[in-house]
């Protein structure tokens, strides 16, 4: 039985590197056609997933790859990322509110809901009580503080007040100078 699939090594999951699970799943997904052909061989009977299991596997891989992509964005060493932290956390914690989520399969919904729950337990305020994260979102030209009020919490006014407190020497009344005073 000749199978024309480029050989790739399946990455084994490692406990200390969560992305390794996604990498293992991605390699299995890539060689799924070859594995399906091997399923007919009595030597592999019962060891290869069914078509339905492969579909569930592929569906589960999609949200995990999105999470991996966002994680890698935040882990960059030579790129400023503080302004990306809050938007990324908010987006990851609100995947279940998207229209695509509502039409996705049970496996995808279960993965996303479990991830969102775990993330919100770990970072209850999505980083919005960290001034540097809030400042970054407020000052970023694309976001302009738009995500500070996401999920029904009001951090926008609090962030503006904290930024003003950084510059106590600037008197708001002195900015209202009339033409005659100049």
Overall spatial form: elongated
How are helices and strands ordered from N to C?
Answer: HHHHHHHH
Mean pLDDT: 77
Estimated share of beta-strand residues: under 5%
Q: Could you estimate the helical fraction of the residues in percent?
A: 40-55%
Number of strands: 0
- As a whole number of angstroms, the C-alpha radius of gyration is 24 Å
Count of discrete domains: 2
Q: What does the main sheet amount to?
A: none
Comma- or semicolon-separated keywords:
182 residues, mainly alpha, 2 domains, 8 helices
Describe the structure.
Helix content is 53%, strand content 0%. By secondary structure, it is an all-alpha fold. It folds into two domains: 10-76, no CATH class; 80-169, no CATH class. The longest helix has 25 residues, at 51-75. The chain is elongated, with a radius of gyration of 24 Å.
Strand and helix map with partners:
Blueprint: H1 19-30, H2 32-38, H3 51-75, H4 82-93, H5 99-102, H6 106-122, H7 131-139, H8 156-165
Short description:
Helices cover 53% and strands 0% of the residues.
């Amino acid at each position: 039985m000749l199978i024309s699939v480029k050989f790739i090594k399946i990455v084994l999951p490692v406990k200390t590197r969560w992305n390794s699970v996604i990498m293992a799943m991605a390699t299995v997904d890539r060689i799924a056609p070859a594995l399906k052909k091997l399923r007919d061989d009595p030597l592999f009977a019962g060891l290869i997933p069914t078509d339905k299991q492969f579909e569930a596997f592929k569906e589960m891989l999609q949200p995990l790859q999105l999470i991996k992509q966002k994680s890698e964005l935040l882990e960059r060493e030579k790129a400023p990322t503080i302004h990306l932290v809050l938007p990324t956390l908010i987006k990851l914690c609100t995947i279940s509110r998207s229209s695509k989520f509502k039409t996705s399969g049970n496996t995808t919904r279960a993965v996303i809901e479990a991830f969102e729950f775990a993330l919100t337990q770990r970072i209850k305020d999505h980083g919005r009580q960290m001034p540097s994260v809030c400042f970054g979102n407020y000052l970023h030209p694309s976001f302009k503080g738009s995500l500070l009020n996401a999920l029904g919490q009001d951090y926008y006014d609090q962030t503006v007040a904290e930024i003003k407190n950084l510059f106590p020497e600037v008197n708001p009344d002195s900015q209202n100078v009339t033409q005659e005073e100049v």
